[in-house]
Amino acid sequence: MSNVTTIYAGRFTGDYKTAFAAAVYELLAVQDMPVNFRISAVEVLTEAYYEQTGERPSTEMLSLLADFILRDDLSDRDPDKVTKKEYPFLSKDQIKTRGGREFASDNMARYTSDIKHKLNGKRASISRECVGRA
């Protein structure tokens, strides 16, 4: 066992999955921690779990820990973060909002105000099926 994982020494025995979940929720409760410390804390916790059980943590717990590491970016509500950051990513809610605003443009040539693209003298209307918002 490494020196770093001694803070979790012997913690994951018996009902080790419940003990690990409790340790994860304990870690998630910490609010003001810089990202590099969050990364280290998650690494120490998962390494200790693996060393003591020989198993990988559940995907649910790993997902919670990943969200913990990315807390700053996931809580960034700036609608322009895609243009402001070098490697931006969106939260689930932001992806949903963005998806509602975007639509495929493969048939958009039919929907123009240019006279040569009018059908039978009238401009074609955009149907919900064409824009993917059905």
Task: Summarize, please.
The chain has 7 helices and no strands.
Written description of the protein model:
- This protein is an all-alpha fold.
- It has two domains: 4-69, no CATH class; 103-131, no CATH class.
- It is built from seven helices and no strands.
- It has helices at residues 16-28, 35-53, 59-69, 71-74, 81-84, 92-101, 128-131.
- Helix 1 (16-28) runs antiparallel to helix 2 (35-53) and helix 1 packs parallel to helix 3 (59-69).
- It is elongated.
- The N and C termini lie far apart (56 Å).
- The model has no long low-confidence stretch (mean pLDDT 79).
What's the topology here?
Elements (H helix, E strand, L loop, with lengths): L15 H13 L6 H19 L5 H11 L1 H4 L6 H4 L7 H10 L26 H4 L3
Helix pairs in contact: 1-2, 1-3
Poorly predicted ranges: none
* DSSP summary, beta strand count: 0
The separation of the N and C termini measures 56 Å
Order of helices and strands: HHHHHHH
Structural category is mainly alpha
Principal-axis shape equals elongated
Total DSSP helices: 7
How helix-rich are the residues, as a percent range? 40-55%
What percent of residues are in strands?
under 5%
- Provide the gyration radius in Å: 25 Å
